[in-house]
Amino acid sequence: MARFYSPSPNENSKWKIKIFDIVFGNDTHAGKWFDIVLILVILLSVLVALFDSIGTIHLSHGRLLLQIEWVFTTLFTIEYIIRLAVVKQPFRFARSFYGVIDLFALLPMYLSLLFIGAQYLAVLRVLRILRIFEILHLRRYTKESSVLINSLLNSWRKIFVFLLAMLAIITVFGAIIFLVEGPEHGFTSIPISMYWALVSVTTVGFGDITPVTPLGQIVASMLILLGYGIIAVPTGIYTAELATSLRRNYDSRVCESCGYKSHESNAKYCMKCGSELSEKS
Amino acid sequence: MARFYSPSPNENSKWKIKIFDIVFGNDTHAGKWFDIVLILVILLSVLVALFDSIGTIHLSHGRLLLQIEWVFTTLFTIEYIIRLAVVKQPFRFARSFYGVIDLFALLPMYLSLLFIGAQYLAVLRVLRILRIFEILHLRRYTKESSVLINSLLNSWRKIFVFLLAMLAIITVFGAIIFLVEGPEHGFTSIPISMYWALVSVTTVGFGDITPVTPLGQIVASMLILLGYGIIAVPTGIYTAELATSLRRNYDSRVCESCGYKSHESNAKYCMKCGSELSEKS
Amino acid sequence: MARFYSPSPNENSKWKIKIFDIVFGNDTHAGKWFDIVLILVILLSVLVALFDSIGTIHLSHGRLLLQIEWVFTTLFTIEYIIRLAVVKQPFRFARSFYGVIDLFALLPMYLSLLFIGAQYLAVLRVLRILRIFEILHLRRYTKESSVLINSLLNSWRKIFVFLLAMLAIITVFGAIIFLVEGPEHGFTSIPISMYWALVSVTTVGFGDITPVTPLGQIVASMLILLGYGIIAVPTGIYTAELATSLRRNYDSRVCESCGYKSHESNAKYCMKCGSELSEKS
Amino acid sequence: MARFYSPSPNENSKWKIKIFDIVFGNDTHAGKWFDIVLILVILLSVLVALFDSIGTIHLSHGRLLLQIEWVFTTLFTIEYIIRLAVVKQPFRFARSFYGVIDLFALLPMYLSLLFIGAQYLAVLRVLRILRIFEILHLRRYTKESSVLINSLLNSWRKIFVFLLAMLAIITVFGAIIFLVEGPEHGFTSIPISMYWALVSVTTVGFGDITPVTPLGQIVASMLILLGYGIIAVPTGIYTAELATSLRRNYDSRVCESCGYKSHESNAKYCMKCGSELSEKS
Description:
The structure is a homotetramer.
Chain A: H1 2-5, H2 14-23, H3 29-52, H4 55-86, H5 90-95, H6 97-111, H7 132-135, H8 139-154, H9 156-181, H10 190-201, H11 214-230, H12 232-247
């Protein structure tokens, strides 16, 4: 993160750099402890919101939990202001991934002054925990998730086509089952019937609405079979894409002695003739 | 689409060509706007049908919504007639993919004069939105979906074998559970029991009908385990097929000697007749 | 099928050969028609059993349907006796795949004289329809299904290991949820709880029994996450196996001119140098 | 197992070696029979626990079943003590995989003297059956399961990233649906709503809690679509990993120069140090 928000060396405000190292960095002793305490406080504040949402606990300890939540919110607000203060480009930070999440984690409590119930959205703070990847210096994890995400991005066009086809299927079958079963069997409108079609075609099958007429059950059977067939599609798209990504782990080096090509990326010697392989460029 | 229905140059009816460019083409300014307005009107008319299907809205605004739907239907009918009028081969258009969908989008409202409720099938208009692929000049999307569909077509024979096996499993288990559980536990007939078997084997599991006797639960467990095992089959078939499609990069070169079309992109000679292939342009 | 049961040429009973050709063969005109009629009669008799299982139809037309079913059974019995009579090795036929199915298709009706309800198992006749593959001369289908089945057989050892692990998971979680939730919440015994665990871990989720205590829901969540993780296992096993099978479609021919190896199995000329490929041996 | 616990030859206590061969080994006649009887007794004791958990059987035969269970427990305790007595390093055995399972299989009955109900955990004995792999000399099975498990281990980092993303999705959607639907529709707290979100996103869909307001159903639809999309992820990860494992055939040769172990089976030279590998025996 340092690369993004580091204060320019000619700023000369020593304390600003020091606080920056603690709040954003994780190389110093203080920076590490700050991050660990931060994660724990985030988890604690999420737990408080979870417990507060339980009716009996809310009645008996709601007042206390609300006060604790406000303490946390005050701390997080101060932290956010400090972050804005010590970075060179506050607006750039505010619009960055972590900056937006940090703000979103604050808003629910302030909104709860206007809208009752908004405080429960404080659990959105859970997203701040994603920062754990940065903290633990786990570059590997970032690499792993980038493989997963790249495969998803590479196949987004195929998935968009797939989703449009899904929408058409759900709309058409929703309208048909609405006509066949009708409001008296729970299919009170086409939007509700579309919700049922989505729940069925994805094999979730809540069972809150189910067809009861023979014709309705035939329509449902056709929809389910269709869903069973096309569940293969996203899996197939993603697996094929991921397999391609993983295959690329073999590098393109060619052995200068025997011409063998399919070397593992961590190989130093050709496994066919034993001669040394050149360094990867 | 121009390639299919373009009026012959020697027809000389200038206005016909102009309207053709607007209605079918999307290269001119007018043609682009026509398509955008068309998509919006289609979406609007689908939304009207969705809202009309909600009981309370139907009671309070049903009359108004019906009038709006008729306005849309009239517009779409005029559009359909114009399309038929300006193409060189009206019958060929009428039997084409988009021609059939355009007609199907009109029928429900006219049928609703004969059969009550048919107007809700007006949501079939949602299929007209597939035209969006043509409009946005997104040839790539067409290519993407053709990869998906080709993989499905290549594996249809395997999927047919799979569906026949499924039918046998569902029939046999439907009969067994009908005998074991019987009508008093909701399995009122073999067809209903087959519906339950389908819902169970595909892991949808509505829960509207469930076995309650120990023997019935053992039969259900066997069916579910079977289903869990064979859910792998369609996914496996499709993924393997798709992976093969993606791995081999076929290009669009045609052999000038024998006309064979499906060449791998790294081929220099036709694998059917051995004559040299032209360079890729 | 002829290869198996064909009467020896020195048997000299001409009518036996003729009937054999009709009943088992499908090369002659009569043989083809016999098979088509047979399939239709099988489907009809299955439909009769399905309809008879519907309560209202059973009450109004049960007597008629039973008579029709007996007519079918008599016909099938005669057919089975003829098959036994005309093959050279009746015992070998009786123990063959189709022989066993033919017998199983007869038994339910005769058993129904002893056990009420057995007649519904007449739907097992649906298995006789698998003969359709032989009838339609669709060798390709047999090939397709053999690829599917071979992949399943190749991975049976892995699937056995997987099923044993599943059994352990289901037993352990079944016992835990039984202790946590207890009979008062529907988990009346460990076997029933194991049934629930199976239904949950396979993502079927009927919802006939569900945990209601917080601790029970945590146990359920862990079980579901486990199930979500291991649903990948059978799919992964099967897909990897199938992909290997499909890859083998490339044959092992080597171009004698340039040494290129990866030819498609329907290639006649090398796609790298254009020289003719040798015939497949 | 002999490799681990075999008594040193200079111990000279002949009977100890003999008993070791019976209890741990499966090469001698006595050793084989001991193992077969052991498996049967384990299965029997699990069945007793299963039957005892059924209410009606517990009432009528509970006393008898408890006595039988205690007989089994005594036998297993004696067996465990003998195992500890005859191995050279009792502590090492006690901490080994099978040693821990053997102890866990004993504890529930002794704990049942303190905590009512604990005896049902005796079904944990089912885990002892995993020993069947050792008994049947099925080295191949161990190899098969090691391929499955290695693929899981290789992809654990990706799966950890995936699970963290799942947790974030479940928490966020749990909070949203709690606000939208509220306690009056069964979503009594955020933890319960998170349980519902997990059940929905994994396509289990019990249906014990379901959204009833239009907005709640829209939120549920978004969650389900997300779940349908990401069900592809674990399957894709695992399949791609497994396919890689199966494609590459690593053999068990160890490089005599540098000790590197993971050689492909067609390698002639070590890819780490370049020295020649010995021929496969």
